[in-house]
Design a protein that fits this description.
By secondary structure, this protein is an alpha+beta fold. It contains 3 helices and 2 strands, in the order H-E-E-H-H. It has a two-stranded antiparallel ribbon. Helix 2 crosses helix 3. The N terminus is likely disordered.
């Protein structure tokens, strides 16, 4: 890795793009594509729901994901969506007591 700083995107062979975007993984080709319905993340943004994890209260937007409270990915009503950090999101989907803890914050 001559001439490349360790830990930089170039060190890992990644190319950063500007606003041109990546058309290779858009729409049906995107790994999270399911139905083509509007993105649920934008629902929370449009309703000005603060970007804060519902459980641990982290406000780092880089680690926040949208959780469907009823776990139905087609139900994109704002009352069914909440912000969770990736860690809390994982825990809620894996452990019943974490899901109960989340539900206690909603009621």
């Amino acid at each position: 890795m001559h001439g490349r700083a360790f830990g930089t995107p170039m060190a890992f062979g990644l190319i950063l793009r500007g606003n041109s975007g990546n058309s290779e993984f858009v729409g049906e080709r995107h790994v999270n594509y399911v139905t083509g319905r509007p993105a649920y993340r934008s629902v929370l943004v449009r309703h000005k729901i603060p970007k804060v994890c519902r459980l641990c209260r982290t406000a780092d937007a880089r680690v926040l994901a949208v959780h469907h409270i009823d776990e139905n990915r087609l139900n994109n009503q704002v009352k069914n969506l909440t912000w969770l950090c990736h860690n809390c999101h994982h825990l809620v989907h894996r452990y019943e007591h974490e899901k109960e803890r989340l539900m206690a914050t909603i009621v």
